């Protein structure tokens, strides 16, 4: 059985850890302080409690062959840099986060023989005291994003992390759709201090339409085909199905922690600048969240 290291002790990492533990895999979370993971448990959707393994600090890590990195986007590269001397040749590294823009940077940090993968999941999980609760089953997809070397991870390996999960040859389109949804919902809920469902109000719909139009224009220029009408319908569908949710960006702003805006609307603004495309709505939201972060 593979020995998996997991970066941090967040909700999605804990979900993967619990799945691995249930399949008798060896799992070691890498944490800032070992006290973060003492006596923690994971509650599955059917109410089963799974004891989560204790974590170790980075200085106690030895050789890492299999690593799952479900961190905030802005923590991905600093973490990989700090752990790079522990990563063996031909290691398997799986990134999982909101937004886009880390893959190219990660390839510069990792050994050339490393196998890099990206996965995305819409599973819902949240922390509750010393327990992590699996709140909702979602769709999960994965793809290898570099040539790397053998042996690579297989579908069976990924099904140990998330079940079900599907290998996707069209992961770019899936990631862009998720990015587009996040570009609309996250900053608006954070700026206006509202739950997701309130974005269905008439006053927000023209703004959402502008966001969708801008993201679709940038995506098309990068050879990713997104239909504007379909994407607007998708955003409003997600708003309806998550109506009672508080977005992660709103939570970050309210908790006075850094947001992932640079990898969401910021990524769109960055790509648009390279393509000489104007994205005023995304730029405005980016600046507004930056001001809230610095408040």
Total of domains:
2
Instruction: Give me the Rg, rounded.
Output: 19 Å
Q: Gap between N and C termini, in Å? A: 48 Å
Can you count the helices? 10
CATH topology of the largest domain: Rossmann fold
Low-confidence stretches: none
Full CATH superfamily name of the largest domain: NAD(P)-binding Rossmann-like Domain
As laid out across the biggest beta sheet, the strand order is 2-1-5-6-7-10-11
CATH top level of the largest domain is Alpha Beta
Instruction: Assess the beta-strand content as a share of residues.
Output: 15-25%
CATH architecture of the largest domain: 3-Layer(aba) Sandwich
Helix content: 40-55%
Structural class: alpha/beta
Q: Which of globular, elongated, flat, extended, rod-shaped describes the shape? A: globular
Biggest β-sheet strands, sense, barrel: 7 strands, mixed
Description:
There is one protein chain. With 295 residues, the protein is an alpha/beta fold. The protein has two domains: 3-169, 3-Layer(aba) Sandwich (Rossmann fold); 172-293, Orthogonal Bundle (N-(1-d-carboxylethyl)-l-norvaline Dehydrogenase, domain 2), CATH 1.10.1040. Helices cover 41% and strands 19% of the residues. The chain contains ten helices and eleven strands. The protein has a seven-stranded mixed β-sheet with strand order 2-1-5-6-7-10-11, sandwiched between helices. The termini are far apart. The mean pLDDT is 95.
